[in-house]
C-alpha cells in the first residue's frame, strides 16, 4: 500500500485538474456563482486534506516514539469549513452556498475513488 504522502500527492494532482475544470466552467458558462462555490469549497477542502495529512504524520511519529498523542486537527479543519461557508454567505450574490459545501467534499470523494481503484487493481 502507498504511503500517506504519496496518496496525498496524487490527490493534489487530481485536484489541480478539477480546479482547472471549475475555473473553465466559471469563465465559460453562465453558472459563475456555482463554479465559484465549487472553487472556494475545493480550495478549502484540499487545505483540510493537507492539515489531515500533516497531523497524521505527526501522529504516526508520536506513536512510534511512544510520546503523548495529540489531536488530529479536527477543530482546525472544522473552522476551515466554517470559514468557506462564511465566505459563501458573505458574498452570496457571487458564490453559491450549496456548491461551496459540495466543493469541500470533493477531495474526500476523490480520495475514496482513488483508494477503491487502487484496491481493485492490486487485489
Automatic annotation (TrEMBL):
Membrane topology designation: Multi-pass membrane protein
Lineage of the organism: Bacteria, Bacillati, Bacillota, Bacilli, Bacillales
Keyword Ubl conjugation applies: no
Keywords from the named record: Cell membrane, Membrane, Transmembrane, Transmembrane helix
Protein name from the UniProt record: ATP synthase protein I
Subcellular location: Cell membrane
Transmembrane spans: 12-28, 34-53, 74-92, 98-118
Keyword Iron: no
An example Gene Ontology CC term for this record: plasma membrane
